[in-house]
Design brief:
Length: 154
């Protein structure tokens, strides 16, 4: 049942990305390019989709997830919630965020939409996903070996 729910959620997420147009890198770049604000060509749709997602999830988080996690109760299909415990802003967070933002800004796509766009079987998207997986592997290796990373402090 857990795998069926995961499959359903993935299809729901992918459908939402495609329907909203956020799997289109040009739409994302149109949002990220704030220099277009003055000309009126800036595309605010990403802001509305993100706000819509927050409007749905935030009440559920506050009313269901957070109280259940604090009571050490898990979600329906897992033993516990996997919520972040780290609160410090450190070098790995800042550097990782900057690298993520640089990649996102250069191509206009982030991990979720890149997976959704694999359905088109276009070589640039396949290469992006392969490079993203390689970057995740490199990042994990760096977390294991560098003394400045958050994982070595816990």
């Amino acid at each position: 049942m857990k795998k069926i729910v995961a499959l359903f959620c993935g299809v729901l997420f992918g459908t939402g990305l495609m329907l909203s147009g956020l799997a289109d890198p040009a739409k994302v770049i149109g949002f990220l390019n704030v220099s277009l604000l003055l000309s009126g060509e800036w595309d605010p749709t990403l802001l509305f989709v993100m706000s819509g997602g927050l409007a749905v999830y935030l009440p559920l988080y506050l009313l269901v997830v957070k109280p259940r996690a604090q009571a050490k109760l898990g979600p329906v299909f897992d033993k516990c919630y996997h919520l972040p415990s780290k609160r410090a802003i450190d070098a790995p967070l800042v550097i990782g965020s900057a690298l993520f933002g640089l990649g996102w800004g250069m191509i206009g796509i982030c991990p979720g939409p890149s997976i959704v766009n694999l359905a088109h079987l276009e070589l640039p998207m396949v290469l992006f996903v392969v490079a993203m997986i390689a970057g995740a592997y490199i990042g994990r290796q760096m977390n294991r070996t560098l003394p400045l990373t958050a994982s070595s402090r816990h």
